[in-house]
Each structure stands twice: as C-alpha cells, then as structure tokens.
Amino acid sequence: MHILIKNIKTLLQTEEGSERKSRVYGKEMAHLPGINNAWLLAENGIIKDFGSMKDIPEIRADEVMDATGKLVLPSWCDSHTHLVFAAPREQEFVDRINGLTYAEIAARGGGILNSAGKLNETDESKLYDDSLERLHAVVAQGTGAIEIKSGYGLCLEGELKMLRVIRKMKEQNIIPVKASFLAAHAFPPEYKENHEGYINLIINEMLPRVADEGLADYMDAFCEQGFFSVDETARLLEAGLKYNLKPKIHANQLHRSGGVQVGVKYNAISVDHLESMGEEEIEALRGSNTIPTLLPGAAFFLNMHYQPARLLIDAGLPVALATDYNPGSCPSGNMNFLLSLACTQLRMTPEEAINAQTINGAAAMEMEHEMGTIAIGKKASLIITKPVSSLAYLPYSFGENWVERVIV
Ligand SMILES: N=CN[C@@H](CCC(=O)O)C(=O)O
Ligand SMILES: [Zn+2]
Predict the structure, then answer these.
(1) Which is nearest to 387 in space by CA: 124, 2, 7, 109?
(2) Which of 223, 250, 252, 270 gets mutated to test ligand 1 (max ligand atoms within 8 A of its CB)?
(3) Pairing between β-strand 291-294 and β-strand 320-321 as defined by DSSP bridges
(4) Cα separations (Å) of 94 from 61, 90, 104, 166, 323?
C-alpha cells in the first residue's frame, strides 16, 4: 500500500541524510526543520521518501492526497498517561472549586484511592472497552504513540488487571503503546501505617508477576510528600531494575520532593511533572540522560503554578511535554490543547513545543528510532492539518480542531 501526499504547504520536523537525532536539547529546540511545498510517500506504514515538489519523481501510489495549504507533521508522542481508569472524578473537581486542595482530597481518601476503589470494582472487559474508546479518541486528535501507567489497582489483582488491559491495547496495534508499572502511586488504606508492608508487597509479590508475564516496560513511583519518600522510591527503582524495568517517575509535582535527584541517580528515562523545581534539580538533570517531562495539563487543571520550561531549556536540557491524561489531575489527553498551554503558560515557542511533543516525547519512551520525526524508515505516523496560515496558528487557535486527518 502506497500513500502519496503532495503539494504540502510545509512538511515539518524533517530529517535528511543518514544521521538521526535522538532528542533535541536546549537552544536547538527553537529550530524545527521543514520543507515548503513538499511531498511524502508512505509504503506499508513506513516513510519511504519525501522531498520538495520541484524534484518530485514519477510515483505510482494507491492513494494520492493533495495537501495544498496544509501542514504535515509527525504524530504526537504522549509519554505520560493514566488512560486506563474506571470512572471520572468530577465531584473532586467541584470540591476543589469550593476550596479543597488536591492534597487535602487525597489525604481524605479521595484522589488516587477513589480511582482505585472504582477500578477494583470494575471488570476487566469493561475497563478494556472504555480505555480503548479513550485511546481511539486521542489517536483521532493526533497522538501516534503513548505510554500508559497502572497505579489504580494498588493490589496484586488490580495492578495485573490494568496491565493486562494495557497489553491488550498494545496487541491491537493501533499505535505503539508502552506500559509503566505504578503500584507505588499511593499507599492503600490498609497499608497507611505500614509502608514497609506495601513496599514489600510490590517488591516481593507484584514485581515478579509483572515481570514474569512481561506486562511492563518501565517502573514508576510517585515520589512526593504524603506518598513515596526518596528512600522508598530508591528501593522500588532498584527492585524494578533487577527485572530490567527502567525508571520513569513522578517527581516534584507538589513539593521539591527529591524525586528529580533520585530519578537521575537511577538513570531514569524521564522524571515527570516538575512543577516544583530549583537550581539543585536543574543541576542534577544537567549531564544526565534523564528527560525532564513537563505536564502543564495537570498544573492547569489543579490551578497550580506552571513548570519552569524556560529555565530548563536555557539550561540546555531536552524538555518533553506529555498530557498526564487521568481522571484526577488532567482529564484530557488532547495534545493539541497541550501545545497551546505550553506556548501560552510555559512561554515555549511553537517550535520548542512541537519538538517537545514529537522527538523528545518519543525519546521519553525510547521510541526515537521509529517515531518523532519525518525520516526515511520511520513510521509514517502523521498529522495532516486543515489549511492553516502558519505553524504558529496551531497553538494560537486553541480549542479549534485543526486536524484534518491522522495517519497511523
Ligand atoms: N500525581 C500523581 N498521579 C497522577 C494523578 C493521579 C490522580 O489524581 O488520579 C498525576 O500524574 O497527576
Ligand atoms: Zn501521572
């Protein structure tokens, strides 16, 4: 099957020659390569070739699309989601409007524990059907690769159920899916006073089963005051590494929790959230391989202060952006809205934000060799926009659906 897209106004995020970038750092993020008046040929889901219309060769294709006035870019790589959940939590949203904080709701047994209660009452097939519907919805908005976490089971059966649902979605092959094991999301009520007991349960009973059934790619933990301490996080990450589960963790959402430093110490693929950052955290990230992944959707929805994207970019770091799609702190998996948030609230330029949502997002789930740029041999996973005036129109026109077609 050959698909030819021609007369593309601008083909964005192109990589030519044989060298491939694995991520984009600091100042380089302001640069988004592209070809004006371009064509692209996809063969059986892989980018076969592309170039300028003035040099287009004779091509026979099964489908030819005319993209006059339209932009084509690689699909979004959403490297942090909790897309598998049993029910929304709009009552907590109203409680917050009425004055409670996210942390107060969690301390009362709401929040993550609320989701865990619902998840453990929901059967696997319903969980799968609802999650699949959400997956299709974000794909239609341009997401072409996604990471999904467990963490609403908080017991052996519940965690396995979530991870099996994620695996089933992986097997559907709609888009590439990575799974993170996040039993260390909150302490279940019965372990509130017995942290040691829950950590032992994760390490000695859950992890071996998860690894044995090949259910996860990464090990996650919520390193935060009132959740998992630095020492507890370190033990969990060490245990995960014994089963080849690399860390990808929640860090510094509510406080400067030490999450960034412990993530860097264990060579985490990414440390995610980063609302609360200081010079020490930025210093720890410099010279590490760990990708700082910002989740401004959660800061927006919880009305918290935003992540210091400019400081991180100015420090030369490869910033990624992800949605954090979950029923509590960000009930949206829309990467197009995220693009607008990144520009308006994090003061990222459109080019920086697109780099953060494509190649750097791909790197934050180790998919940079197959996703995140337009390069020969990578997946032809593409967003084709409606006719638009320029690249900056995309984040500018927030809330408007400018996606005309998605190819995954
Ligand atoms: N902060 C920890 N976990 C999720 C929220 C989970 C929830 O509230 O259900 C997050 O990344 O924001
Ligand atoms: Zn999260």
Answers:
(1) 7
(2) 250
(3) parallel
(4) 53, 6, 14, 30, 21
Q: Which ipTM value was assigned to this complex? A: 0.98
CB environment 340-356: b (16+ within 10 A), e (fewer): bbbbeebebbbbbbbbb
Task: Find out whether 108 is annotated in a ligand binding site.
Answer: no
Q: Closest ligand 1 atom, CA of 111?
A: 8
> Distance of alpha carbon 290 from its chain centroid, rounded?
15
Q: How far apart are CA 85 and CA 302, in angstroms?
A: 19
CATH number of the domain at 2-74+372-407, please? 2.30.40.10
324 lines ligand 1 (CB under 6 A): yes
Ligand-binding annotation for 255, yes or no, is no
Residue whose CA lies nearest to ligand 1 atom number 11 = 324
- Residue to mutate (ligand 1; options 79, 80, 81, 82; most atoms within 8 A of CB): 82
For the domain made up of 77-363, the CATH class stated in words is alpha beta
User: Can you give the pTM of this predicted structure?
Assistant: 0.98
| Domains of the chain by residue range | 2-74+372-407, 77-363
Cα 78 to averaged position of ligand 2 atoms, centre (Å): 12
Task: Quote the ligand 2 centre to 65 CA distance (angstroms).
Answer: 38
Atom 8, ligand 1: residue with shortest CA distance: 328
Q: Is 222 in the pocket of ligand 1 (CB under 6 A)?
A: yes
pLDDT in tens, the chain (408 residues): 999 999 999 999 999 888 888 999 999 999 999 999 999 999 999 999 999 999 999 999 999 999 999 999 999 999 999 999 999 999 999 999 999 999 999 988 899 999 999 999 999 999 999 999 999 999 999 999 999 999 999 999 999 999 999 999 999 999 999 999 999 999 999 999 999 999 999 999 999 999 999 999 999 999 999 999 999 999 999 999 999 999 999 999 999 999 999 999 999 999 999 999 999 999 999 989 999 999 999 999 999 999 999 999 999 999 999 999 999 999 999 999 999 999 999 999 999 999 999 999 999 999 999 999 999 999 999 999 999 999 999 999 999 999 999 999
Tokens of 325: 């799609």
Q: Find out whether the beta carbon of 147 lies less than 6 Å from any atom of ligand 1.
A: no
Question: For the CA atoms of the chain, what is the radius of gyration?
Answer: 21
Pocket test for ligand 1, best of 329, 330, 332 (most atoms within 8 A of CB): 329
